[in-house]
Amino acid sequence: MRIKVLLSGLLASALLLGAAGIGAVDWAMGAAALVLQLVFAYAWPRLVGAHARWALSAILVLCSAAATAATLFMPGDSPMSHGIEVIAAGVLLVFISQVQRGAEAQGRMSSVVAGTTGVVMAVLGSSWAAAGTTSFGFPLALVTVLGLLGSGVFAMTRLPNRITLGFGPLAAGALGAAATAFPLGMAWYEGAVIGLVAGILVAAIRAMALSTRSVKNFTGVLAVAVGMILISGATSWYAVELLHFG
């Protein structure tokens, strides 16, 4: 399963990098992000074993489309400024969907937790759309993907978590810093931070996936791989904002 997650993540990353390379089209990364969000919307409720899966998938699709559209066409003070509003609406819809199932329905609380988590992850994926509207969309995507790959090499092994949690992020940070040797307009420490954060994300998700043993089929593989890509966009975006890059 580790190798399948890595390969699926690489395919998703290639889609984003290809979209990021189309610099003349601001919405290209948004379109790529939406494709990944739709895949995640289907796979996530099935990975966590939620009840009323189609209802939760529909909510995730709605929130993904709303967040990405708001990012592209109603950026406000920041391209991600409407994300919290979409998350709030999505959480409300999740609660309503479970209330409608009736008081005797099983798994309502676990489905609320799964749905809320999925809404947050899906909406954060619109950060890739936000990156596509800036001048540093491709550098951000490239360094993030290299960071994910650096840590992913360790994650696909059978090494214990204490090793992968240490060496994976270090390798990711090193690759991120090395990528700045290319004319990306990014300082080495900025690349290192973005890569390091992406590496920590991979190592942490790998540890959680192994401890819960929840990835048992291809749907689970897609949920983990695509979810990781979506969250990495948000971590890189906010790291960039903190570093005042761009």
From TrEMBL:
Keyword field contains Membrane: yes
Keyword annotations of the record: Membrane, Transmembrane, Transmembrane helix
Keyword match Membrane: yes
Transmembrane region(s): 30-47, 54-74, 80-99, 111-130, 136-156, 163-182, 188-209, 221-240
Protein name: Permease
The species this protein was found in: Glutamicibacter uratoxydans
